Amino acid sequence: MAATSASTFSIGSISYSSKTSSLSQSKAYRVNCNSGNSLKNFSGLKAVPSVNCESKSSFLGNERVAPLHQSFTQRATNQNQTSPNAFQVQASFKVAVLGAAGGIGQPLSLLVKMSPLVSDLHLYDIANVKGVAADLSHCNTPSRVQAFTGNDELANCLKGVDVVVIPAGVPRKPGMTRDDLFNINAGIVKTLVEAVADNCPDAFIHIISNPVNSTVPIAAEVLKQKGVYNPKKLFGVTTLDVVRANTFVAQKKNLKLIDVDVPVIGGHAGITILPLLSKTKPSVTFTDEEIQDLTVRIQNAGTEVVEAKAGAGSATLSMAYAAARFVESSLRALDGDTDVYECSFVQSELTELPFFASRIKLGKQGVEAVISSDLQGLTEYEEKALEALKSELKGSIEKGVTFANKQAVSA
Ligand SMILES: NC(=O)c1ccc[n+]([C@@H]2O[C@H](COP(=O)([O-])OP(=O)(O)OC[C@H]3O[C@@H](n4cnc5c(N)ncnc54)[C@H](O)[C@@H]3O)[C@@H](O)[C@H]2O)c1
Ligand SMILES: O=C(O)C[C@H](O)C(=O)O
Questions:
Q1: Which GO terms describe its biological process (predicted)?
Q2: Catalytic annotation on 122?
């Protein structure tokens, strides 16, 4: 019989649970919240291993939400006293957020600060980051928070870091495409990734800054120029597309949200975002009209937010949630969990394009496998959409590669 131990700790009305099973050696880190629609499970994911690599957001339900007044330390102490087998949460990973004072950076840093797997949280920005770090550092969760600002402090921010998340850069305003951000963000990403290459070349690198379809290839070229490119550890963060697809499908089909998982492939802009609705778990049927409406809504969801914010930026809170989920999945993989699946824009041989978003299996060394089965048995609609996205995605990738190499020649 599998021996299972668990511990739970709380932060306000939110409780964390960690579980480990001696049989499966798998651990799930979950966040429970006792308010209906708010943050439910930022790790999002106890991925369920199966032959077809199905990934499932399992949460909660029956895990107890601890009382408001109990702090993390009290709770952990109680656990250890009451159960000799209590699982001691081991916070051991260092995470850096570059662009930490921004619209995404702040809530993302808060969510990462809540992770029981993080020992050190390094916040870097060119402005206003000291206040953000001082503020966050008062939360009684395990990680130590440090602020770094300006180019002179970037190297120290990055030394010894396991996961670097990059949301630095400008967001869209109404009427702009993500590609309109290229001229500013390409240079920002290039400079930051150079520093990553010099100071923590073995880290997982999560690129959020848009246009992701170009900034990831830029990062790859920079890492190659520095002789430290490891394609298994460079990720374009497309988790928000999956989060949106899951939400919109659950709403449309009146499904239990936690059960829904829609793989989203391609890239992260307009028609390059391709939700594979035929691969939705649980299996569900859609009319042609529903497929068209859902696909377009998922593709335009970023623009929906940009327009609603009317000049005040783009998605920040949902993005922070999505990025925190990807960070937590990466940390679980680094921690040895063997059942971690996410969609991400990575170097890929799934299609003729050098980078492509698809489901991947994450392990200690980064991308352990690119899940090819999702591209088999596509519907005619999906096949056509896949062919249609390729030329735009190819152009965006080439634009990034050309930029990085031109800059290298002129440097
Ligand atoms: N991948 C996705 O799904 C996704 C989703 C939403 C937004 N984004 C992108 O994320 C980026 C950030 O969005 P935001 O809303 O947080 O913008 P923001 O303007 O609110 O924050 C950006 C932060 O980056 C900082 N910054 C600028 N240059 C920097 C540098 N050289 N080094 C360090 N920090 C620097 C700024 O000071 C600011 O604090 C945008 O490019 C946006 O398009 C991506
Ligand atoms: O739409 C944007 O510009 C931001 C982001 O890429 C998103 O999808 O929300």
A1: malate metabolic process; tricarboxylic acid cycle
A2: no
